[in-house]
Design goal:
The complex is a heterotrimer of chains A (326), B (255) and C (289). In chain A, 73% of the residues lie in helices and 1% in strands. By secondary structure, chain A is mainly α. Chain A is globular, with a radius of gyration of 20 Å. The two termini of chain A are 19 Å apart. Chain B has a six-stranded mixed β-sheet with strand order 6-7-8-3-9-10, sandwiched between helices. The radius of gyration of chain B is 19 Å and the shape is globular. In chain B, helix 7 (183-198) links the parallel strand 7 and strand 8. Chain B has eleven helices and ten strands. With 255 residues, chain B is an alpha/beta fold. Chain C has 289 residues and is mostly helical. Classes of the chains: A mainly alpha (326), B alpha/beta (255), C mainly alpha (289). Chains A and C meet through helix 5, helix 11 and helix 13 of A and helix 4, helix 9 and helix 11 of C.
């Protein structure tokens, strides 16, 4: 079972990873883990063919609701994170009523407007959202022990393990959804919504479903962020971060499950390792922008197309690319 | 059940233009029914109203006595009336088998929670069996893993029908299925329809070319300028003076 | 109270002037190229920094600096056309994504060249036209209003009365038919990009002494421009101008009587409402999206 061994090796590498890193690099690892979930959830939304510019704000909805639930109502942190996701999904369902009257470019702009309105509401209403300064002193994840390991959440390594497990479970669920008949229906809605409808698919319901699921997981990623950083404000979820998410997805490619994750990891590594070491951190937007332009010009199918080229050559043309039943 | 599908006083206006003017006809259960007429007769508009693509201005579409006009396309489909599309409208990016699997959406409704936990093994294998059955039925099982967009024209048409067939329809609506086909492909297509009929499925064909469906239909309704013109068996229609008149220079078509 | 109303009205006219310059450029680019230029706010910012560099930095006379800003940003537009939009013509999402990339580059360049903080620009003129004790119009604002009226009238004349304008409108309506008529698509795209970008540039240059110039100033500009072109109907120049005036009035009044954040919320909600009710905008025309 070589495949099984690869997974074990990858897991071991992920567990060992923080120990070779500096404190600030460990912190970046935590952010990377959270961003992987964010960008993977974004891909689920793009499955039905719609590109949103409000995804990061939806992430913020998860962050704000989880923070407020713990602060105002004393909800136990892991529970509030889950509820943050649920709340983000509910907001998405509400937003779907106006937004899914639009398609394509209009959906893009509409989602942007809806997101900005939510963000400005946080800014304007000091109670309960804390206005422009946001919410400070968010309860951290309470420490606990699982026998062989003592979780101390002031340590980024501990939080990395915790977030890693949460994100892994979420990714597994996203993966299961995509490879299920539900995922196939998402694809169907994307490529030919009329034919899907003629096959009895309620297209609107499936668009909403994809939007709600994607938003739910974005909400969980936001909650993970809030309880790690301890402070959130409206500017933490502005269009700049949305542009990064777009860049990750486009550079990685959205045709496969791993494409956007690949984009996120590669760009983060380039950014944090290469740029920081070279002292070019200030040029981050410049380099991101250039990468975005170069990849859309010269690699329109993303990094995943390079990976596919290699794997396909190895697998020859015996087995089909996709196995729909699984 | 003779009055299986009934169109009653169906009318469609686009602005001032009356595309279909109080059209009525009945489709018997288990028959192949043709809806013909010259270009611009309102056939496709009628078709789109029956399938739920358009909401009629007035009138009814009755299925087993239930009014289904004005329902959305997926709601009509769920009542057993499944349409195909004029051109090779397929999920071109998906494989042939995946196309057929989308067709099984209604009998094996996916459930997201069951799918995550893995409690839908039976449904999945059932759906796959049904999809493969549909592909076999239309002779497509050997191209199962190819991209639908890469298929030949004839195969794409057959796949369009396989997707519809996979959903266990009671009625299949075919929109000009013979357009752009050579005689050999036409003969194969007619054969497929006979097999659908033998399977107990009612078929309503909208067709411009009378020649193609003469030998196929049990009953034919002819319309012209949005209005009902004539109805009857192929023989009657072929010799109906009003029909010949409507198909101007019709002798060429009818012969 | 009457004074306050009159003053707010004057402020709205000023806001409408620079907003319409930006929005009309955005619509022109969309009409001819079919691309939504997300970097349009940064073109505005580039115009403002041209003033920072030339007028505040090198003491070039203000209006000469404005003209240079217009040329500079117009050339940025030509660069975008050549390097981004032309190669990505057949990729529907491509132009938009590339313009986001370009936006980030311009922003980063501004940060590297001038720092993150806002820059102080010496006032061009201290003169104020006083209509009454409390109703006053700074002459610097009057420049912006005059520029908008003159430039938009000139554009209108250019589009409706000249051969180039005819070619531009023809290729906006039906690029293929226009190509058959012997209109060079590349040529019209260049002209549209230069004019569209140039208008954003001059708006940025003229308003630079009146606002806080910083690398992120493009953000609120592009949001405003989006609201205006959606409400006015994507692709409609007249709609963009009318919507600019309407938006400026609403926004200025809400800002004056309540607060700025609420004004932004009202503006965005208006846009969302228009998108829901009539996605082609209140002055709806053919849409190419």
């Amino acid at each position: 079972m070589p495949k099984f061994l690869i997974w074990i090796a990858a897991l071991a590498a992920l567990i060992a990873l923080p120990h070779g890193l500096s404190f600030s690099q460990q912190e970046i690892l935590v952010f990377l883990t959270i961003n992987v979930l964010l960008v993977a959830s974004y891909r689920l939304l793009t499955l039905t063919g719609e590109w949103s510019l409000g995804h990061v704000v939806i992430m913020g909805v998860g962050a704000y609701s989880s923070a407020l639930l713990t602060k105002k109502l004393g909800v136990y942190v892991p529970v509030s994170m889950l509820l943050g996701g649920v709340f983000a999904a509910l907001i998405a369902v509400l937003l779907s009523f106006p937004l899914f009257r639009m398609k394509g470019f209009y959906f893009l702009i509409g989602s942007f407007a809806a997101g900005e309105i939510i963000r400005l509401l946080w800014k304007r209403f000091r109670d309960p959202f804390g206005g422009a300064k946001g919410i400070k002193g968010i309860d951290p994840m309470p420490d606990f022990s699982v026998g062989f390991y003592q979780f101390d959440f002031f340590e980024p390594t501990s939080y990395y393990y915790f977030a890693g497990v949460v994100v892994a479970v979420c990714l597994w669920i996203l993966w299961r959804i995509e490879k299920s008949p539900v995922g196939l229906t998402f694809h169907a809605v994307h490529w030919q919504d009329k034919l899907a409808q003629a096959s009895g698919v309620n297209v609107r319901a499936y668009r909403t479903l994809a939007f709600a699921i994607a938003s739910g997981f974005a909400g969980i990623s936001g909650a993970l962020l809030a309880h790690y950083v301890g402070t959130i404000n409206p500017n933490a979820f502005d269009i700049d971060l949305m542009v990064f998410v777009l860049t990750w997805a486009i550079v990685g490619g959205t045709a496969t499950f791993y494409g956007p994750i690949l984009g996120c990891v590669v760009l983060t590594v380039i950014n944090e390792v290469v740029l920081r070491e070279l002292g070019l951190e200030q040029m981050r937007p410049l380099i991101y922008g250039a990468i975005m332009i170069l990849s859309i010009l010269f690699l329109p199918n993303g990094l995943e197309s390079i990976v596919q080229k290699f794997t396909q050559r190895r697998a020859s043309n015996g087995a089909p690319e996709r196995s729909p039943a699984e | 059940m003779t009055d299986f599908l009934e169109v009653k006083d169906l009318t469609m206006r686009f602005g001032g233009l009356v595309a279909v003017d109080s059209l009525s006809f009945k489709v018997a259960h288990g028959s192949i029914h043709g809806l013909i007429g010259p270009n611009g007769a309102g056939k496709t508009t009628t078709f789109n109203m029956i399938s739920g693509f358009y909401t009629p201005t007035s009138g009814q579409v009755l299925l087993r006595g239930e009014d289904i006009s004005g329902l959305q396309m997926h709601e009509v489909a769920r009542r057993g009336v499944v349409r195909t599309f004029q051109h090779s409208t397929l999920f071109a990016e998906l494989t042939v088998l995946e196309n057929a699997l989308v067709g099984t959406h209604m009998p094996f409704r996916p459930n997201i929670f069951a799918a995550i936990i893995g409690w839908d093994k039976e449904d999945r294998s059932g759906a796959e069996a049904r999809a493969k059955e549909a592909l076999e039925f239309f002779g497509l099982d050997h191209v199962m893993h190819e991209r639908a967009g890469d298929l030949s024209h004839g195969h794409q048409r057959a796949l369009g029908m396989a997707v519809a067939y996979a959903s266990h329809p009671d009625v299949v609506l075919l929109d000009e299925p013979f357009t752009g086909m050579n005689p050999e492909e036409t003969r194969q297509m007619m054969d497929l329809m006979e097999r659908l009929k033998a399977d107990g499925i009612t078929i309503l064909i909208v067709e411009h070319d009378m020649q193609a469906i003469m030998g196929l239909c049990d009953n034919i309704t002819c319309m012209s300028f949005g209005k009902f013109l004539a109805e009857g068996g192929p023989h009657e229609i072929r010799n109906h003076p009003a029909v010949i008149e409507a198909y101007l220079g019709g002798a060429r078509h009818v012969a | 109270m009457l004074d306050l109303l009159a003053q707010t009205g004057l402020n709205a006219v000023y806001a409408a002037s620079y907003i319409s310059l930006v929005a009309v450029g955005l619509v022109l680019i969309f009409g001819v190229m079919g691309v939504i230029n997300f970097a349009h706010g940064e073109l505005f910012m580039a115009g403002a920094y041209a003033i920072v560099a030339l007028y505040a930095g090198l003491n070039v006379p203000f209006f000469l600096a404005v003209a240079a800003g217009l040329l500079f940003v117009g050339c940025l537009g030509l660069l975008m056309e050549r390097a981004l939009f032309r190669p990505l013509k057949d990729n529907p999402l491509g132009g938009l994504v590339a313009s986001i990339g370009f936006l980030m580059i311009l922003q980063a360049l501004a940060v590297m060249g001038f720092g993150v903080r806002m820059v102080h620009i010496p006032p061009v003129t201290q003169e104020v036209i006083a209509f009454s004790e409390k109703v006053r119009l700074p002459v610097a604002r009057l420049y912006v209003i005059i520029a908008a009226i003159v430039l938009l009238s000139a554009l209108w004349y250019f589009l409706k009365r000249t051969k180039f304008g005819w070619a531009l409108r023809a290729s906006a309506q039906d690029p293929e038919a226009a190509a058959l008529q012997g209109i060079s698509i590349t040529q019209t795209a260049r002209i549209a990009m230069f004019i569209g970008a140039g208008l954003a540039g001059i708006a940025g240059a003229l308003t630079a002494p009146l606002v806080s110039v910083n690398p992120h100033m493009g953000h609120s500009v592009i949001v405003t421009a989006f609201i205006v072109i959606i409400v006015g109907g994507v692709g409609s120049l007249e709609g963009a101008i009318v919507a600019s005036v309407a938006y400026a009035l609403v926004h200025t009044f809400v800002t004056t009587f309540w607060d700025g954040v609420l004004a932004d919320i009202v503006g965005l909600s208006l846009m969302l409402l228009v998108l829901i009710v009539k996605p082609t905008g209140l002055f709806g025309s053919a849409d190419r999206a």
